[in-house]
SUF system FeS cluster assembly SufBD core domain-containing protein
Amino acid sequence: QQLDLHSVIHHSVPSCRSGQRQKNMVSGSAECIFKGSIKVDKLAQKTLSSQICCSLLLTKKSKVKVMPSLQIQADDVQCSHGAALTQLDPEQVFYMASRGLDGRDARRLMLIGFPEDVLQGLKETSPTGYKRVMDKLAVMAENAVDP
């Protein structure tokens, strides 16, 4: 499986604000490709924009490729982009196990918690939509955890 995501944030007027935070969980031999771009035109002075892609690799065969870019023509802006790549931390699993959870439940809870910060807006604006996403995430997390 391959997921190819493209995002373009284009600011063309002054004092724009944007923030994009993306979370990916990649398992099996799947590959996730993220191409993210922030474009700021010359007239878009005082723009604040950020874009970050955080990915969690769940298997040794899963892959992530991130290609962020900034295209800035204005000179009075604050723009940033970045990427973070991680795996489930065995020390965190051990810590949770020392608090009474078995390793499988600890990993499952960590998977469910990984995208929580990006889902907060949905929780506030659409509690029903948030519940639907969390239910699907719980099923995915259960299937993604080794027995």
Summary: Residues 1-87 form one domain. The longest strand covers residues 2-11. The mean pLDDT is 92. Helices lie at 90-98, 103-113, 116-125, 127-144.
